[in-house]
Amino acid sequence: MNSQSWTKTVTQNRTICEKILLVSKDIRYAGVFNEYGRTISGKIKPGIKPIFSPDSVRHEFFAIASMMRLRERTSKTLGRVEIISITHKKINILLFYKNGITYYITINKKTKSDTILINKIKKILTLE
Fold first, then answer.
1. Domain ranges, residue 96
2. CA angle in degrees (0–180, nearest 5) for 100-96-40
3. What value does the mean pLDDT of the chain take?
4. pLDDT score recorded for residue 126
5. 39: CATH
6. Which residues of 33-59 are buried (b: 16+ CB within 10 A; e: fewer)?
7. Could you give the number of structural domains in the chain?
8. Residue 128: pLDDT above 60?
9. Which of 10, 80, 91, 103 is deepest in the core (most CB within 10 A)?
10. More confident position, 31 or 5
11. Cβ atoms of residues 42 and 17 within 8 Å
């Protein structure tokens, strides 16, 4: 990917992240990374203190990207991954996957990962 197309990809995904943040006041972070865990774009809601250090983010994204590649291998049998929800003590994470790209969204713990929120995000990502 040349410099110009990379810049275009980053800009498009930054816009998507900004739209996702507007879906709910409880969304803390929206980010996008490639199949190797390399960050393409990400946006943290203003006023939110990051939970991860930069090193932790790299490890987290690499681990999730590896898991998504493994899940992709079973997609012929099970169908494509639509959404993965990870529940932690401090936050919830929603993962959406499309064409080797993972959309990583963190949500305040108090928020339920309800269908309305998921459907709004899916619409932004045009996954429906």
1. 3-125
2. 55
3. 90
4. 82
5. 3.30.450.30
6. beeebeebbbbbbeeeeeeeeeeebee
7. 1
8. no
9. 103
10. 31
11. yes
